Amino acid sequence: MQNRKSPKAGGLAAAKLLKEHGQNVLVLEARGRVGGRLYTVKDERIDYVDLGGAYVGPTQDRVLRFARELGIQTHLNDGSGDSLFYTKGRARRFVGVKQPMGSIAAYLDLNNLYRTLDRMVKQVPAEAPWQAPNAREWDAMTVQQFYDKIIWTKEAMFCAMELVEQIVCCEPNEASLLWFLWYLASGDGLLRILLIGNGAEERKWVGGSQQLCQKAMERIGIESVLLNHPVCRITQGLNDVSVHDVYANKYTSKYVILAIPTSTQSKILYDPPLPSGKIQLMQRAPMGRVVKTFMYYERAFWREKGISGCISIDDPDSLVGGTMEDLKQDGSHPAIMGFIVGDKVLSAQMKSKKERQLIIQEQYYRVFGTEEALHPIRYEEFDWTQEQWSEGGFTSTLPPGYLTKYGSDIRSPVGRLYFAGTETACHWSGYMDGAVEAGERAAREILGASGQLSKDEIWKEEQEDPEVKATPLGLTFWEQRLPSVPEFLVITGFTTATSLAGLCYYLYLKYRK
Amino acid sequence: MQNRKSPKAGGLAAAKLLKEHGQNVLVLEARGRVGGRLYTVKDERIDYVDLGGAYVGPTQDRVLRFARELGIQTHLNDGSGDSLFYTKGRARRFVGVKQPMGSIAAYLDLNNLYRTLDRMVKQVPAEAPWQAPNAREWDAMTVQQFYDKIIWTKEAMFCAMELVEQIVCCEPNEASLLWFLWYLASGDGLLRILLIGNGAEERKWVGGSQQLCQKAMERIGIESVLLNHPVCRITQGLNDVSVHDVYANKYTSKYVILAIPTSTQSKILYDPPLPSGKIQLMQRAPMGRVVKTFMYYERAFWREKGISGCISIDDPDSLVGGTMEDLKQDGSHPAIMGFIVGDKVLSAQMKSKKERQLIIQEQYYRVFGTEEALHPIRYEEFDWTQEQWSEGGFTSTLPPGYLTKYGSDIRSPVGRLYFAGTETACHWSGYMDGAVEAGERAAREILGASGQLSKDEIWKEEQEDPEVKATPLGLTFWEQRLPSVPEFLVITGFTTATSLAGLCYYLYLKYRK
């Protein structure tokens, strides 16, 4: 056999492409299942539930094409209805991605944040964020430091922090600003990432996301995938490379693709050792911290009030920060899916599963104001921070400094060893689409190394999916032009000063002599 | 056999103590040598050189007692002579730990930094830094953010940054302020850590530091130590625990001590998995980055000018930031030992060994102003960032937020698995003394668990070494009372205002009418 892999979702994409090019492949999987961070649990009472990655949307054309090849379909999430922003003990309704603010200052503040992020994201090349004009400056600070500079109001600060927590599952003081901007750039911008319709949460997979891996496994042949085979050693020779599992089995091949998160690369002993840059990077890319929860109800009672099921919760006692409705394709098995992320995972872990359920359902009761929220028919959850093969979710985060110092090491091959995994993707990194991009790119790198492809065929543009089409996104005329808080103060000050001067002149004219 | 270990320096201390209590022990070592971050290379032209940990001093009583038991002696480093501060292309002589500043403002600034750090360190309990009164606030910021708040002058900022770089081998924007303060507290304060005489660099081991491990290995029996046996899996049952090496050998015992750096704990698969806190912590404790270099000369020519060999180099083109003289006990084999740390390791890695030597010797020539500096007889170096078992040096660093969130997880046992390694020590963490403290504490935890010791015997006070005595350290009267830069400006402002007022009054009196 010729090529071996230690894969998650993207590993099977790599294996499939290599197999289609006539290569022999063997996939070594540490877990007792394929899927990695895609994990679909079946249960007769709820049909199935995606406890890991679930969503897909326009511009994620690689995974859409990959799924089409495997015969997996998507269904739309219903983005209609009002969202809720629960703050100061009350729920405010809103439409769109920006929560309604309680003051003009906070409104301008949040608007300015979106606009500023949008402008900055456009300056960060998804393929090489370290080449952004301000790369060094932005990589030297955390997202929180940046927020402290441009945000003036408490309300906008909450929403700004929630953006980071909900998108990358870490606290704003844990991540490099440049890295966060790059993550947004890699996902076609902030709006695309946040939206349901026309955005990253537009669709789910009929039957669950883990099928992507299960069907890919069937396609390449179940006999080519070894489950429960954690790899502990990779030894490279001049002409081949050997992968050793924890049972001391040895698999020798021409090339190996490692399709695992950056931090878990340290689970393997490399002989010869990896270069210093890789050793340093894998110590500095902690996974986000997330618990995914589902509260199932008899009926989607929120819909009766015209509520979409999307809530943003500003309450220190709440475990869940953001939610979304979860339905099957036929509208059955309604649930509110809620993420517990970042530091809140620590609070959640001090409670039992039953206590967590009670805290969350009481929160939903306070938000929806409907007694029915207190009577779920089932509660499901999965704590990714306890899962030793992923070590967290959705993806790796990078603290300040490391994207500019070690970022280019993330996908550079070492001898016969190639690196996939959604962390190494340029587009939709952290998503299934990124996993497919990275896996297929690594596979083509190997085809290139073995002379089957030329160098310029390794990175491939993907055509837009025939069914899932993207509409361009951008800020509105006013969103782009409204003043920020300091600008507003200057304008207000100037207007007030002018008015007062006018008044004085008027009084002067009226009463002189 | 009863107890197994995956050890570095501290693992052998644990094994020795357990053996002395009649336990059977087996030590599994990944490398082809014992010693971990203690690495002594023998060579006839330089006798031997400590490429890893080397120094020991007063208050490090555990490792001094441990060495005495093994018959290993120390010799004094000669701290006499002037130190040099090379800045703006010139070398300034000085005595003590604080570099001479070029202006009163910079002098007051640096003095204020030392005083402020000293006061803050005293508020951080070495045993539980998360209980410091300002723990949350200090853990929320990097050392750099703190520096940006209190430092006013460029010169003092350089020295402040160098403090972090030379003590923990990371950049000030990489580490939590609370963690750095705790590290200083664990090492008996900033002055103790920096000093040669009466400080952490007072002595070296006659024959090299690695002997501590080699002789401990002989003491417990060479047959009880398996070299080249990387551990890849630890499986715990109700009554025992099994350690699996990469060759699929299985060793079953009552207890296991893991004496490896925090980040390298992720190299092992745990069944059942470690708790979430450990999984998260081991992703968030990157090792410092350091290359240790030695430039050997025919004669200690710097001594002829009354220079100690300690240089602090403020020059962006320099690879080495700080140096110290390195001599054998009899004064032979003189060398300048220099550390390349933090981001400078990246620049160093872009050069060949020969190029690095040339850059460094030319730097020494500029600093010492002596032609002889250009003619070393030998150059030695070791890049710890390329060493996959340590992944860097001297020790783990903690980015903001994690000491308060996960700090207490670092040494909490998990079932039959106990945690040693200098990172888990309360005193002299990061040093050999911490490794011995941690190893012996873990051994006593096991003796406690097996009923041979009571709970209050696990943590043990150590008596002061009979030969290596500490003198109390503190800031002088003036160091404690001189104003900071803003205070100075207020005083100057006030004095100037008062003088001007006095002058005006004088002129008024003189010229009135």
Q: Can you characterise this structure?
A:
The structure is a homodimer of 513-residue chains. By secondary structure, chain A is an alpha/beta fold. Helices cover 35% and strands 19% of the residues of chain A. In chain A, the strands form six sheets. In chain A, strands 10-2-1-14-21 form a five-stranded parallel beta sheet, with helices on one face. In chain A, strands 13-12-11-15 form a four-stranded mixed beta sheet, with no helix packed on it. In chain A, helix 1 runs parallel beside helix 9, helix 1 (9-20) packs parallel to helix 14 and helix 5 packs antiparallel against helix 6. The mean pLDDT of chain A is 95. The interface between A and B is large, with 48 and 48 residues.
